[in-house]
Design a protein that fits this description.
Elements: H1 2-45, H2 50-60, E1 66-71, E2 75-82, E3 95-102
Antiparallel strand pairs: 1-2, 2-3
Length: 109
């Protein structure tokens, strides 16, 4: 009797564990994307070239991330977007983060 109950409950436990791990991975990717955007916008606001800003962002961002640097007249903005790295639910949205900062004195384009 106990073996039959365990056989029925075990797949449900495995599914819940898989969903929890997926949610945790999505959360970690979001935090990494936000950290990458903040580090990249700091570099960009100091006047670093776009290639350096992208290198800083990609070193901290989740795998497969894309970096967009928008250098405006008053401020600079960095947008990071990364695909979701989940197998069970491929339609989940990926990580997306942005950060903006005013130009440092003497660093305007």
């Amino acid at each position: 009797m106990a073996t039959a109950e365990l056989a029925v409950a075990l797949p449900a436990v495995v599914l819940v564990l898989a969903l929890c791990l997926t949610a945790m991975a999505l959360g970690v990717d979001h935090v990494r994307a936000q950290d990458a955007a903040r580090a990249a916008v700091r570099a960009a606001s100091r006047g670093e070239p776009t290639s350096v800003v992208q290198q800083v962002a990609l070193s901290r961002a989740p795998k497969g991330a894309e970096v967009v640097v928008d250098r405006g007249a008053a401020c600079v903005e960095v947008i990071i977007s990364a695909p979701a790295r989940v197998r069970l639910l491929p339609d989940l949205p990926g990580a997306r983060a942005s950060a903006s900062a005013d130009w440092e004195p003497g660093a305007r384009p």
